[in-house]
Design brief:
With 415 residues, the protein is an all-alpha fold. Helix content is 79%, strand content 0%.
Length: 415
Amino acid sequence: MILNYVWLAFFLSAFVAALVQTLAGDLGAFPRQMEALFGAAKTGFEISLGLTGMMALWLGFMKIGERAGMIEHFARAVQPVMRQIFPGVPAGHPAHGAMTMNISANLLGLDNAATPLGLKAMQELQSLNPRPDTATNAQIMFLVLNTAGLTLIPTSVIAIRQTIAVQQGVAGFNAADIFLPTLLVTAITLVVALLAVAWVQRISLLRASLLAPLAGFVAVTGALVGWLASLPPDRAAQWMGVIGAGAILSIVALFMAAGLVKRVDVYSAFVDGAKEGFAVAVQIIPYLVAMLAAIAVFRAAGLLDWLMGGIAWAVAAVGLPTDFLPAVPVGLMKVLSGSGARGLMVDVMQAHGVASFPGRLAAIIQGSTETTFYVLAVYFGSVGVKHVRHALACALLADGVGLVVAVLVGYAFFR
């Protein structure tokens, strides 16, 4: 229901803004919105079409892992932690394994791999849903944790920064200097998201079976971060790519080997999984087009610019520094559109310099936030859920805290 009101608010506010602009003499207001509207429909279809191949690929591999029994092993390995966070999911259910693999792909910054794995997890969780059009507690927890965007290696952001640094002729530039700040921001955002959903769903997190594995994860992550931080920037970037790609390909090889040992017809299993991937990608189209269209008209109406003007006035009025403001639109847009936020990040880097404070802060925000409305539309849309309950409120709370923390961490590291 909340998503319904948000969607209506985007369209109606954009229409009112265009009407006011037209009455003020701007005859291009409504044509701009029409162009944005049809462009968003095309973009939504193209994104879904592009996702089809990736969905078919990864769900094909997932089907091999499922028939070889590897997904069940994944589920058993994470059962102590998952049982605390997802009390409504039975022990050993395939959803545990799918969710674990999705979270792992997000940690490594492998967005293309994470999305189909996440959609597979949503399908498994939907099999436990007694009311198919309404999100379950487990689906909400999984989705909100996804929107928290915990990322160990922001590979795409580092690559973009390095490319722009070369274009701008910045000598000795360390494109990986946002690595630690981004990890810190995403970790804090994840904790906020987890606490918010746990509070609403009345889940107790103060249990040794949950805290002990998390402490181990923090220790391993800290050791990896320390090792990468000790390497030269170019060498660290290379190892980040090796770790990310190696982890995913290792999982694929493991599934293949397990299928061979269990005498699974891996080719047939892959084809069966790929067919499911195609069906899921097609089902996403109407939900994705609906959300992108609303966002497009909102942006074309200039309402995002008005919002930023209000924020700048409020910040200046209380006497706070305003040098972080050029990077804030990246965070606001990231909630709505990943590609739009990426474009704004590049714009900030080009306008202020890739090595500037706004440029670094924009990169941290881009690497540590998630496209909340996109995730809601795609993940819930893939299983036909229409009533998202408290998912949007908890996700937006985590987004807001993440943006504020990103600014504070940016000042701590680069000011």
